[in-house]
Amino acid sequence: MTCLKSQKGVVLIICMIFLCIFTALAVSLAAMSGTNLQIAANYHKVNRALESAQSGVEILRFWLNGIYLPGSVPASQRLNPIYSYLKYSANIPAILNDTNTTITISSVTLDLANSRSFNAVIEKISDNILRLSVTGHYGLVTRTIPVTRTIAVIYNFEQRGNTVFDFGVATRGPLQMTGNSELEGVNIAVDVYIEAIGAATALDLTGKCSIAGDVSIVDPVAAAQVSNASSISGDKGTAAEQHVIQPVPSSEFPVPHPEYFKQYVENTIDTNNTVFENIIIPAGKNPTFSGNVTLNGIVFIETPNVVTFSGNTIVTGIIVGNGDVNDNSKTNRLVFRGTVDSRPVTQLPDEFGQLKSETGTFVITPGFGVSFGGNFNTLNGVIAANGVEFFGNAGGIINGSIVNYSTTPMTLSGNSDLSFNRSGITKSPAGFTPELRLEYDPNSYSEIVL
Description:
Elements: H1 2-6, H2 10-64, E1 68-70, H3 79-89, E2 94-96, E3 102-111, E4 116-126, E5 129-140, E6 146-160, E7 169-171, E8 175-177, E9 182-185, E10 192-194, E11 201-205, E12 210-211, E13 215-217, E14 223-226, E15 231-232, E16 235-236, E17 244-245, E18 255-256, E19 267-268, E20 275-281, E21 288-289, E22 293-301, E23 306-309, E24 313-321, E25 332-336, E26 340-343, E27 361-365, E28 368-372, E29 375-379, E30 382-385, E31 388-390, E32 395-398, E33 402-404, E34 410-412, E35 417-420, E36 432-433, E37 435-448
């Protein structure tokens, strides 16, 4: 009995011990649960901040992908047009620093109710590389410190040919085709681009004419007239109208730089010769070549001048005129009445050096009207002038495009049959300023831990 009395109250003590243990465990579990809940909430906020940054990257990517710059813009000034585009066209709050090296984009709200927003910085890393850093914001960790995450990506300036070079024919003025004239494609259907701003008629096909591809017209009200015997993209009469796209956004015409080729000029023309290499035709010379003529390298024509080839002409090089791209008077003219055999500069002898790499251009004569009246096998490169005419039996393959800067009509008449070979044309032709575009590098994506 004494032994039993000595153990009295032990159960109560044990229960109290277990109660304390369970209470401590409960408190610990409650604290751990609260901590985990807070961690989960913080992760949620961090992820929403990251989502805000990703949204900012995609928004700016949308706008930056629409930016094209003339290649003539100096590398030190390339942020200027980007800043202007973002601020005034995209309505994004952007600030360009005084040294033209950084564009700062202040807070852009994504979700006002949840305080989701982003800001960004575009930095010039080198002449051809920009870094975009986007910081996303979400809510607050405390009452004063927002949750942020930053993403950085790289954009490169890449060259691309001007969009008018995507067409077989691009003309600021109307296009008039009569007789049996044709525009065909050697490997793909040749498309035509016409601005014709303010003209009553943008396209006039009379007789039995044909255009193998579609016709894009900028002016919304200029007429497109197609005779019943003429066709566009294989369809005649009213059915051809479905291949006339109107209106379309205007495309940038390439800026010609004829003076660039003057570095290659070595000799002044002597009309007693029949073979010429890297020559200049002085202003007012107005020469006529009636026999067989061979032209190698650069033929540089000063204004004013009317240069006529009435015989057989072999050209392994580029014909250049230094006129005004806004001169549509045709006071200056380049006329081919005989046959023309054009060969690429790559076929020049090695002593012509760097000139052999100036590919893609056959005639670059701003301010000159250019006429072809004879047959040719191939014209190797772009023909760019202020007024372009094909008449008589002029016809053959053109390895490039025709670019007419003149607002007066470009005309094809008689049996002019032009076949455009657009195969392998990937870079801007020599003598033209290429466009630059911002190209996003997806491999550059990185999340910055601050």
